[in-house]
Amino acid sequence: MFEEKKLQELKDMCRSRGVSLTPQRLAVMRVLTARRDHPTVDQLYDDLTEQMPGMSRTTVYRVLETFERLGLVRKIDSRASKAHFDADTSLHPHMVCLGCGKVVDYQDRGFGILEPPGITDDGFEIIDYAVTLVGYCRQCRRNVDN
Ligand SMILES: [Zn+2]
Ligand SMILES: [Zn+2]
């Protein structure tokens, strides 16, 4: 369901923005929406090698950058690890583990979510923001305790 919705969004966006809908772009969107664990470029690349042999890591990265520019994906930067990507572009907080680098959605979505305030007094238009909670996951906490 989510997968189909995102593929349609990609097609519509390509049409309206005059971006070509290449097999590479379709394939990256497919593998990204097939998993909900905020994969890195490397993880997506691994998933893609079966479907699109010969596609380079650089291509995967470029496709994701294009998606980000088009507002189709969110890039989650964390000081803990490499960039992770999310096809769910709704405003929602992420938890980043400083131990293993994993990124998960913070499920209590009531936390910290405010509408972007719009235009500030000095004319800065705020259109988006990100909430990243950092800490240690259960597994990493266990490893520290032992
Ligand atoms: Zn961890
Ligand atoms: Zn997310």
From TrEMBL:
Which GO terms of type biological process are on file?
A: negative regulation of DNA-templated transcription; regulation of secondary metabolite biosynthetic process
Pfam families of this UniProt entry?
FUR
List of residues binding Zn(2+): C97, C100, C137, C140
Q: Which domain of life is it from?
A: Bacteria
Mind telling me which InterPro entries this protein's record contains? FUR, Fur_C, WH-like_DNA-bd_sf, WH_DNA-bd_sf
Give the protein's cofactors: Zn(2+)
Q: How is the cofactor bound?
A: Binds 1 zinc ion per subunit.
What CDD domains does the annotation carry?
Fur_like
Return one GO MF term.
DNA-binding transcription factor activity
Keyword Transcription present in the record's keywords: the answer is: yes
Q: Which UniProt keywords apply?
A: DNA-binding, Metal-binding, Repressor, Transcription, Transcription regulation, Zinc
Spell out the SUPFAM superfamilies in the cross-references: Winged helix' DNA-binding domain
Similarity comment: Belongs to the Fur family.
Q: Which PANTHER family match?
A: FERRIC UPTAKE REGULATION PROTEIN, ZINC UPTAKE REGULATION PROTEIN
**Know the name of this protein?**
Transcriptional regulator, Fur family
Q: Which organism is it from?
A: Syntrophotalea carbinolica (strain DSM 2380 / NBRC 103641 / GraBd1) (Pelobacter carbinolicus)
